Structures are given as C-alpha cells and as structure tokens.
Amino acid sequence: MKLEVNQDVCVGCGACQAICPEVFEINDDGYAEVYVENVDEDYEESAIDAKEGCPVNAISEVKDTDEDDEEE
Questions:
Q1: What does DSSP assign to residue 42?
Q2: Where are the domains of the chain?
Q3: Bridge partners of 3?
Q4: Domain spanning 2-71: which CATH class is it, in words?
Q5: How far apart are CA 4 and CA 11, in angstroms?
Q6: Which of 30, 38, 58, 65 is the one with CA 20 to 30 A from 16?
Q7: What is this structure's pTM?
C-alpha cells in the first residue's frame, strides 16, 4: 500500500504521526508527509487509522497504475 499527503490540504496537526509514526512525519515546513515508499504490512492497520483520522482528509491511497494495467 502506498499513501500520500496532499500538502495543500494538510494543516499539520500531527494526528497521523501520533497514530502511525512508522509511516508519517512532520516535515520542516510543519506539514505531514509519508516517509516510506510502501507501507509495511505490519503498519497497514495503523496507517489506515491515521488516514481515516485526518481531520482534513489530506491523506489518500495511491493506486499503482502498473497493477491496474496487469489486471486488464
């Protein structure tokens, strides 16, 4: 699973980092970012909790277009 934070929407509250510090961090500009390429299976549940807990819905899952192409 891949996640991304929309920097234009993020308010830097830190909830995602508090819920799942293995995936999210607050950058030097004060906004959240994902610092792993792919979320490890061990952290998927807490990463989803962080995504769902974002007060401004700034976190989204990135769909891998290569996987979509393989399914067709």
A1: G
A2: 2-71
A3: 61
A4: alpha beta
A5: 14
A6: 65
A7: 0.84
Q: Are 57 and 10 in contact (CB under 8 A)?
A: no
Give the rounded distance of the alpha carbon of 22 from its chain centre: 11
DSSP 47: H
Copy the structure tokens of residue 57. Answer: 């819905």
For 26-64, the pLDDT digits (tens) are 999 999 999 999 999 999 999 999 999 999 999 999 987
Residue written as token pair 């974002």? 54
Rg over alpha carbons for the chain, rounded to the nearest Å, is 12
Q: Where are the beta strands (DSSP E) in the chain?
A: 2-5, 24-26, 32-34, 59-62
Q: Collapsing DSSP states into helix, strand and coil, what is residue 19?
A: helix
